[in-house]
C-alpha cells in the first residue's frame, strides 16, 4: 500500500472551513481507502507566528477537534488506515530537520514563497525568524521521515513538496553510494510527489475572487452555529449582472453553484442551474438550497463534534496511539539515516532496531 503524510498548521484560530475540507481533509478521506495515511497537526510549524502559550494551546485543541471530527464523521471511530497525531509528539521530526539542514542549499530555501513574501512585506530582516525561513526543511523532514510516496495538499503548498523532493534527492545522492550507502543497500528516502486534484487546488472564497481563507474573511464555516453559516451563505457572490429574479443568470464564476457542485444533489443542482439560466429561480432560493445542503452534508460531522468535544479522554487516546505508531516508523527511518551519515560507529551502544 502506498503511504502519505499530510499536515495542517493550527494557525488562524484552528477552525476549518469548507476550503480546507475540499482541498485537504476530503482528499485524506478519499485516499485513506487504499493508502497508509499519516495525518498530523503541525504545531511546531505554528510557532513561526504564534508565540503566545494560551493561543497555541487553544488553536491546537480546536484544530485537533475540527479535523478529527471530520474524519470520524465520515470514517467512524476506527479511522481505518489513518494514523492521526500531533507533530510535537514525534520529536524525531526535529532531529531529521537538523540533519537535513546540512544537505539543503541556502539558495533553495531563499526561493521559498513563505519567506520571500514575508521579505517583500517586512523592512527589517530581524522581523523574520529562522523558524519561518527554515519552515520548508521541517516540512521536508515531516514528509521524508514516513517515506511518503505522495503528499496531498492545496496548490499553495506545491513548492514545499518540490523542495522536500530536492532535499531527498540530494541526501540520497550524497549518502547513497559506496561505503556511505544505507545498511539496506538502498537509498534512504523515497521521492515524494505532490497530490493536488485540479478541481479543489484552490477553492475560491465567498467573494468569488480570492482563495477561501480565514484571514480574508471569505469563508464558509463547518462547525459554527447555523445562523453564522446562514449569514456566510447569504453573503456569497453570485451574478452581479442579474438584478431581478426573472433576469437570466450566469453559472460560471457564481460561487453558490461552485459550492453546490460539491455539496448538492447532482440532479437537483442541474435542474436549478437550468432555472437560474432562464431566470426562473431567485438568488435567495439557490442560497437556501446551498445552506440546507451544507447542513445535511456535515450532519454526521457536526454530531461527532459534540461527541468528541465532550470526551477529551477519547481524543487523547486517539492521539496517543497515533503518536506511538508514528514514532515507531520515524525511529526506523532515523536509524537508517544515522547509519547512512556516520552518526553510528563502533562505540555506539544504542540502536532503535
Ligand atoms: P487558511 O488559508 O484558511 O489559513 P491553511 O493554510 O491553514 O488555511 O490550510 C490548511 C490546508 O487546507 C492546506 O493543505 C491548504 O493547502 C488547504 N487549503 C486551505 N485553503 C484552501 C482553499 N481555499 N482551497 C483549497 N485548499 C485549501
Ligand atoms: N505547511 C502546511 C500548511 O501550512 C502544513 C504542513 C506541515 C504540511 N508539514 C507538512 C503539509 C507536511 C504537508 C506535509 O498547510
TrEMBL record:
This is Tryptophan--tRNA ligase. The keyword Methyltransferase does not apply. A motif ('KMSKS' region) lies at residues 211-215. HAMAP family: Trp_tRNA_synth_B (MF_00140_B). It comes from the Bacteria. It is found in: Cytoplasm. GO terms for molecular function: ATP binding; tryptophan-tRNA ligase activity. One of its GO terms (cellular component) is cytosol. Catalyzes the attachment of tryptophan to tRNA(Trp). It is an enzyme of class 6 (ligase). GO terms for biological process: tryptophanyl-tRNA aminoacylation. CDD domains: TrpRS_core. Belongs to the class-I aminoacyl-tRNA synthetase family. It comes from Candidatus Gottesmanbacteria bacterium RIFCSPHIGHO2_02_FULL_40_13. Keywords: Aminoacyl-tRNA synthetase, ATP-binding, Cytoplasm, Ligase, Nucleotide-binding, Protein biosynthesis. Gene3D superfamilies: HUPs, Tyrosyl-Transfer RNA Synthetase. Signal peptide: none annotated. Its EC number is 6.1.1.2. L-tryptophan binds at residue 142. Homodimer. The gene is trpS. ATP binds at residues 9-11, 19-20, 154-156, 203, 211-215.
